[in-house]
Amino acid sequence: MTARKEMQQFEKLIDEVARKNNFELLEEYLEREDCENISYKCSKQLVNKLDKLLCQELDKQETKSVSTLLNCLWKCGEKISIAGENGLPAMTKCGLVGKMVNWYEKLKGILILSGTEKNKITASLAEDFFNILLIVYDSRPEGKMEILENFVLRTCTIITDVRISIYVQQEVVRKLNLMLDSMPRDARKKIFSTKEMLLVMSDMGRRILDAGDYDLQVAITEALCRMIPEKQRRELACQWFSMEFVSNAFKGIKDSEFETDCRKFLNQVNGMLGDKRRVFTYPCLSAALDKYEVNCRLNHISSDFYLCR
Length: 309
Fold this sequence. Notes:
The chain has helices at residues 3-20, 24-32, 46-59, 63-76, 87-93, 96-114, 120-139, 144-160, 166-181, 185-191, 195-210, 214-227, 230-240, 244-251, 258-271; strands at residues 40-42, 80-82, 85-86, 281-283, 286-289, 292-295, 306-308. It is mostly helical. The N and C termini lie far apart (54 Å).
């Protein structure tokens, strides 16, 4: 295929997929074509065409087709050229972020309907969406605020919703922490001081207590610590955790020793849950699995060594 034909091929393929309702065409194209060193010249209507297809498949809960479209955007988005501007910034100017808010709402409905059991398909679907969210977030500095204002609160509501599988929540909170890691300081102050965010952060605190999964507990704790500076966390801990014992334990987490302090915090939290406890930690000197043995590092800041399950 010549370069000129290749430039025109992508949007025509989207049109054909929509006309024939045949997503195998897109799957075959993604498997066959190498997007490297290719530029897809598209019209300003491309975002609307993708939006229409995605909304159609999300409404039908056709998760495979939705993943195919999202992967298509992930693989080819940076190679798209619209009105002389390249990549996802061009698509953002055509209203991509607003469309993604709508996709998110439909996606969340699917995640809720899928329930709390482990489901690789829905977990993969959530991962595909948030992969796109991250590359759009990183595509241009001036666009970060638009993503943060539209998606931080919404992402947190997935993490706190007990109707959604913890396997999905684990993936989502990992993506949230990646966004928070490079979040501009001015955006941090603006977003996390709103009434809605303060409420959802309290929900995140409660989710730590009832998550029943150590990795999820760690990731949510990390998110709270990334959202709010250490000094301010000490003031908010009482709002996030109603039990004084728990709030005091959380106040002991220092940014410089997060891994150690977080483990101590969660050991205390899980230990006081009694019959409701679903995460267990065991102090030990060493642990062996088959021919492998793990020991506490001699130079480790804490002398405690725990296994979690």
